[in-house]
Amino acid sequence: MPKSLRYPLAVILGWIIAIFMVYSVEQLGHLIYPPPADLTSQQQVNEYMKTAPAGALVFVIIAWFVATFVGGIVSCFIAKGASMMMAFFVGLLIFFGAISSLMMIDHPVWFSVITMVGIPIIVAYTGRYGKRFEQQVVL
């Protein structure tokens, strides 16, 4: 498969896997820290965030970090080359999703700082680690 098709496909599939990872880890967090059933409005979500257990918020951060890593690794594996670029694009999509969440929902400052610093670090690590997959091709 030519690079002109493989690279976009790698980013798209990496992003899809990343979204699945966010969902899966956050669902695990909801099992351990069940949110109130009556979160039906933006105001209720913002009020809950003021009293949410730190563990529940940590699960969200872990979900974003795991998604960034796994989605980036999947894209590196599929792309066969340009691992830093593949990890960057998948990480950028996760980063924009995190920024969107931070803008819509009132999060604690510590949560925002860890997220904004952590995701780029995970992207850099993923790009370096992803070089191991450059010789292995799926497609």
Report on this structure.
This protein is an all-alpha fold and 139 residues long. Helix content is 79%, strand content 0%. The protein has helices at 3-32, 42-51, 54-79, 83-104, 109-130. The termini are close together. The model has no long low-confidence stretch (mean pLDDT 90).
How is the secondary structure organized here?
Layout: H1 3-32, H2 42-51, H3 54-79, H4 83-104, H5 109-130
The overall average pLDDT, rounded, is 90
Please tell me how large the radius of gyration is: 16 Å
First and last CA, distance: 7 Å
Give a count of the beta strands, DSSP E runs of length 2 or more: 0
Shape estimate: elongated
Unreliable runs: none
Concise structural overview:
The protein is 79% helix and 0% strand. The protein has 5 helices and no strands.
Task: Fill in the keyword field for this structure.
0% strand; single chain; mainly alpha
